[in-house]
Amino acid sequence: MAVSQSSIKLTKLVERFELEVLNQGKNYERCLIREDDINRPALQILGFFDYFNPSRIQVMGKVEWTYLSNQPEEERRQCFDAFFQKPIPALILARGLEPFPELMEMAVKHKRTILRSREATSLFIPNLTAALKATLSPRITRHGVLVDVNGEGVLLMGESGVGKSETAVELVKRGHRLVADDAVEIRHIGTQLIGSAPELIRHYIELRGIGVVDIRQLFGMSAVREDSEINLVVNLEQWNENAFYDRLGTNDEYTTILDKKVPAITIPVKPGRNLAIIVEVAAMNNRLKRMGHNAAKEFAKQLDAHFEQMMQDSQMDAADDYDEYDDLSANGED
């Protein structure tokens, strides 16, 4: 499934962060932001444009403003003339800074958008960056069910009819939370995979024989969650007598989603198995592994140590028998 290219309208950011519009540039209403990072034009106001990415939103703070305020008027005009020749989507003045007349003059000349925020630069930049990364991060939609189990995001995958939705409902009844059913939108934000439901089907789940039910209305707000990090992938498949299933759990398996490896396990589905309890234990065991304790490997070490001790004891018994035989032989006994 292809990874979608995300974007956000500049006007949406203006509305979200309550930015003041000082000048509307060319295509202001249709301007789309696709870069998830921002730039402070410190070197650019000095005329250095190597490796400059004009697609990023530009943010000017107290440092740049103070430097420019100490420059002659004509140098400021030349600076902004060169800067606004680049096709930047917008320049945002933080701290409620007053724009220089030369800045506004060149912005009008080159039809560039100028915005202003009342927030301090050190607060505004990380907030804007976080919002851009959350909105513009690579994303993909996978068929499955995402459930929050004791804080662990568990993505249930498998063929249609294998019991994913039924398992999710049973988990909800046990106090866990549904994130998405049928379609899971997955975003790669930083080092995390974040899953959520498409808005149209959020909080709904389909149960064969019953139809579509609203989990939020049936079980309350505590039974649903808007999004969750994906910590474990559980593949549900019909029990196959000829297949080999890991009984100790010493083999680490992973599923790659958006170039990130996620721990994965395969659970065979068979009549009489309580899948909800198995998934619940798998989620808690996965958390334990992330905290540095692997029960399967600890058990394997104990087995190895036990058999090694048995071998040593056997060798010692054999040595004792050999010494006893030598003593008998020395005394002339058969």
Distance between the termini: 80 Å
Question: Any low-confidence stretches, pLDDT <50, length ≥5?
Answer: none
Helix content: 25-40%
**Helix count, per DSSP?**
9
- Strand fraction equals 25-35%
Main beta sheet, described? 8 strands, mixed
Shape call: elongated
What is the N-to-C order of secondary-structure elements (H for helix, E for strand)? EHEEEEHHEHEHEEHEEEEHEEEEHH
Description of the molecule:
The chain is of the alpha/beta class and 334 residues long. Helix content is 36%, strand content 27%. It has helices at 10-16, 62-69, 73-83, 101-110, 121-136, 164-173, 215-219, 275-290, 295-330, and strands at 8-9, 20-23, 32-33, 38-39, 57-60, 91-93, 114-116, 139-149, 152-158, 177-189, 192-196, 204-207, 211-214, 227-229, 232-238, 253-257, 260-269. It has an 8-stranded mixed beta sheet. Strands 2-7-6-5-4 form a 5-stranded mixed beta sheet. A two-stranded antiparallel ribbon has the order 1-3. Strand 8 and strand 9 form a beta hairpin. The longest helix is centred in the C-terminal third of the chain and has 36 residues, at 295-330. The protein is elongated and about 95 Å long.
